[in-house]
Amino acid sequence: MSNFATFLEYYNKNSWIQSSKNIVFENNVLKADLDNGSSGFIHNEIDIHPALEDQQLTNSFGIFKYSLTKEEDDRVMQELFPVYDGPTIPVIEIQQAIMLSVFIPKYNIMRKETVSHLSNYKLPPLSVHFGYTPNNVSKSPFHKLMDNPNKRNELTVGMLEIFQKFVDENESKGNNWLLYFEDDVRVVNVDRQEDLTKLYEVPEDAEFIRTIMGKKENVQLQHVNYHISYSGGNNHAFYISRDGCKKVLHYAKKYKWKYICDIDLYKIAKYCGNFPTGYDGWSLLSTGGINDITDKLEEDEKLNMYHLSHHIFTQKQFL
Question: Which overall architecture, per CATH, does domain 88-268+303-318 show?
Fold first, then answer.
């Protein structure tokens, strides 16, 4: 869509037009303030990606959102997240699995159930890192790196502590890999005899591998593909290398952590942009004009991120 007039001609039947103001469309980027239905307007900025320019946008409580059919979704996902076809490492071995949890009754019960479930699978040596509650999160040395210390930062600081510990313990051992869990994770779509201590034909530059995107069907790990990945959130299990941990820690120390939980991880991915991922129903979670953290980063500060072609972990609540 080459100009604003053409854009409006195509989109003037969209419901969001009637609940918006300050609409600007230039260089294929749409900017608009959307009525959230209660307290006011929310500023949105979104690239109209070629894979999505024929799809209708809606206003979902102040956030731009696409609504795609399953067939449309599959096509767009392949275009936005192409299969990696570059050089690979035949096999990498995962040295550790570390679970983030909190030592309070509710999570003690949840963690015990999760550890029991994971014991049915061949995993790297598993340890637990005990993090923080809202009452004591300020005790973490990483709390000062949170851009908004009043947000729910317990998961973020606990995760960063795990990354720092892994880097410190492996500084002289090469680019080792870690499997990170939260304490409600479940293994899915792989048989119990699968060896989850190894990944095969891994992209040569990979530093971070997501495990809860892709097809929800049974698979052998030797047969997974890898997709270029970025953006999204709510990822409760992933593989990360020592070099990847160092990049994340560097980002937090230099720029501060912008969002809650693990959102920043996907925002600092090498190919991240101002368009939605499909993970959350094609909505754009980054609003208020803060859309693409990677604009601020040097190329060597960005995270080389991929995701598997199949789900192999999920949360207990999604079973």
Answer: Alpha-Beta Complex (3.90)
pLDDT digits (tens, 9 = 90+) for 130-158: 999 999 999 999 999 999 888 889 999 99
Computed over every residue of the chain, the mean pLDDT equals: 87
The string of DSSP letters for the chain reads: --SHHHHHHHHTTSGGGGGEEEEEEETTEEEEEEE-SSS-EEEEEEE--TTTTTSPEEEETTEEEE---HHHHHHHHHHHSPBP-S-EEEEEEEEEEEEEE--SHHHHHHHHHHHHHHTTSB-SPEEEEE---TTTGGGSTTGGGBSSTTS--HHHHHHHHHHHHHHHHHTTS-S-EEEEEETTEEE-SS-TTSBTTEEEEEETT--EEE-SSSB-S---GGG--EEE--------EEEEEHHHHHHHHHHHHHH-B-SSTTHHHHHTBTT--SS--STTSSB----TT---GGGGS-GGGSB-EEEESB--EEEGGG-
Q: pTM, whole model, 2 decimals?
A: 0.85
Enumerate the domain spans of the chain: 4-80, 88-268+303-318
